[in-house]
């Protein structure tokens, strides 16, 4: 990816219930999309980070392993949003199976931003730009 790409985040899971957080991420300069399904290999090139909204009965280890196994996935940031009642064991299994980390599904857009930028900082091939509200660009 070249440096001219705007930082993209893909939310995977139930759509339409998180408009406020998505709008806040957009206001911070990210390009944000939602989908209920795992992305195809062609869609991966547009995103620097994937955030999975875990649902009841969702096997995070399986989802993490499936995403990491996709061709061209590389070292993109992969974060799971989990309910507060998810056990520490389930969180550890998700991280061991491909997720970079798990966050509470109540976390703010700023929490997500901080983690995504921290994860991308060490991956030069996924450097991207954040679009500032005043039109200026800032490297992430």
SSE topology:
Blueprint: E1 8-12, H1 19-27, E2 31-35, H2 41-44, E3 49-53, H3 60-69, E4 77-82, H4 88-96, E5 101-104, H5 109-121, E6 129-131, E7 137-139
Parallel strand pairs: 1-2, 1-3, 3-4, 4-5
Antiparallel strand pairs: 6-7
Protein architecture, described:
The chain is of the alpha/beta class and 140 residues long. It has one domain: Response regulator (Rossmann fold). It is built from 5 helices and 7 strands. The strands form 2 sheets. The chain has a 5-stranded parallel β-sheet, with helices on both faces. A two-stranded antiparallel sheet has the order 6-7. Helix 4 (88-96) links the parallel strand 4 and strand 5. Helix 1 crosses helix 5 and helix 3 packs parallel to helix 4.
